[in-house]
Amino acid sequence: LYSNLTACQALGNMCVMNMNSLSSSSTDACGLFQYIYVNTARLGIVHSIAFWRNNLPWLYYGDQPGLASQVLEANHFPTIFSFKGTDEDVKLQFIAASFDAAGNFLQWQNLEGGILQLCPDTQSKLNAAYAFGTTYQQSCKISVSKILLDFANPIFYDLFLEYNGDNGQQYLWAVPVLNLNLQYSEMFINQGSNMNSWLLTRRFFLVDALSGKENDLGKLPRVIRVASKISISIRLVSHTQRGMIYPPLMTIAYTDVLVQNPETQSVMVSFSVNYEMNQSEAQIQTDITLGVLGGLAVLWSLLKTAGWKRRTGSSIIDLQTVLKFLLFYAGDLANVFFIITVGTGIYWLVFFKAQQFVSVLLPLPSQEEAFVTYIACAFSLKALQFLQLLVSQLTIDIFFIDWERPKGKVLKAVEGEGVIKSAAAPVSIWRTYFIANEWNEIQTVRKINPLFQVLAVLFFLEVVGFSNLALMDSSSSLTRSSESYIAPWSRILRFGVSAALWLAIAFLQIIFFSVFYERFVEDKISQFVDLCCMSNISVFLLSHSCFGYYIHGRSVHGHADTNMEEMNMNLKREAENLCSQRGLLPNTDGQTFQISISRKMRLHYDRIHESLTRKRGPARLLDSSANTFEQSTKAYNTMNKFLSSFIDHVHKEMDYIVKDKLLLERILGMEFMEPIEKSIFYNDEGHTFSDVLYYGNETTLLIFDILFFSIVDLASQSFVLAAILTYLQQEIFRFIRNTLGQKNLASKTLVDERFLI
């Protein structure tokens, strides 16, 4: 009746303390407010806002269905923001009108003073909450006694966002409030994020220590109500290129505390500012990419399986074939997930951190779950592929063919007969032991230095400061002041930064070793081939039943078991081209081959190999069983004679031809011709026999290391722990590969394991 503004403000405050209840009771403060609101339409509205009645506080936006989405999404905020510029467009200028409980207007307050943050902190860290693009999170426990001391009288706030119009005039934009403690909160929870069910309000308070008091206002209140969770959400307009946002939304939740012992009681409070954008389009693009690459991975795995069937000499599709296809597909699908996650991480890293006018915002932690799932899938599948690779390398068939022939004869006593007869001079086994040890050493040689890789990644992340790029703020600086606010980590950015560093450092290492180190210092793979030739020993490898590799090490000098003078003379003759070339074919230098052997050749090899495999003897050097030793020696000589005669084309029924691989065969990694009558030796200038070593599988090892590092980091949020565990797993698997590979080498070649050092 009297339009008393202060009294109406006081009534509004009582309604806010009652959680904006929409009770129809006229005795309720909110019911009385609604009654007055309806019956004072003749007084008009304020600033053309239909919900703001003249001489009344603005408490509600209205309860019409769909009104919340209109308020929050119908119009964008009439200014633009950037990450780099003046204070006006890099900061959110929040301002609040404050009232006391009696309805008296107190003052305008800038939120940079930290008036909404109940947790104590430095001024610079409190002000960082309103730097545009910086995700801000603050939480702490605050004692009830401090709350009662600092907030004896409740203060009520109407929140606005300040901006400049085109004419330079300052304007205020009202910020809506979503109170989770409304009587409609149950509906809100049931309908989840359905914006149409939200009932938006305007006024709020931080602490209510007044309404919980009984008759004597001087005593402590029985109950206090504390704003335990305050969150300001900033949403980017879709497809914007100029940093346009929708109106901000404040979400607030209150906790009622029964006051018993204020000195010992405490309340957990939090304040956050979150930035988000519609990620549905990015998710659709990711799903499309996953579908396309996943389909290509199926085709590639089918080709691998077909090549594997050809190499095993089998044409029947059985359970083993299906399992092999699944293993191939696991590895290829891991690569698909890896490509998608690395691409996604680097995309967000580059486009979020490098932008000036804001066009993208980082996904929220809840929106990162699919990304983390992709990384977990990639790691699990890559681990399966890595274990399968390890098993296949530990079960290869290998034999060292010794081309050395006896030089002259020696007199030898015949045991039991007491007579002396002449016999061929024995050929030294030390050259074979030497080659076996060299092979044993190169089994775990890689194209990069794993220890340097881990230390370099850790150095750039923690010392140089690349880890700061993973913070959810707008800064692209590598350094942060200890006094400045440190934003929370983004899991996508952490993966993007660490994966990019891993790949970049590994790429530089591979270039360095392949272009400089292996050319001018030491190339262990090529040196092994040269050593085989100087030792007069060839290497016959079978990675599949009917496929493998051959290193032709037959000496062009006829003998390698010689003295130093003759060895130097041989090297000099070879340097001056006074002898034939090293290649398997006359007048060629080709020493390494991929071999596809016939089924008949494989069966003959297996018959000899059955007697070649012997039981492991005791640890003492001379305690081997005489019978077992004689059988093993006989089997070794038989295998050596058979393979050397096979290379010399002695067995016409098991002959071979030498040819070049077609370009398509090289690309697909398979052979089109089936070795039915004759085996096929394919010229190989790329030393692909390293495929049975770590060296030829660097891509698989590197991706496995990156994913292992990332999984540990995502779980622990610690790059240091991830680096330590990654190096430990590298050493553990290297030890397993060396130990079991050494046992397989001794088993397949008859080289006594006690001579492998």
TrEMBL record:
Keywords, sorted A to Z: Membrane, Transmembrane, Transmembrane helix
Assigned GO CC terms: MKS complex
InterPro entries: Meckelin
Highest taxon of source: Eukaryota
Spans through the membrane: 326-351, 451-472, 492-516, 701-728
One of the GO biological process terms: cilium assembly
Protein name: MKS3 protein
Gene: Tmem67
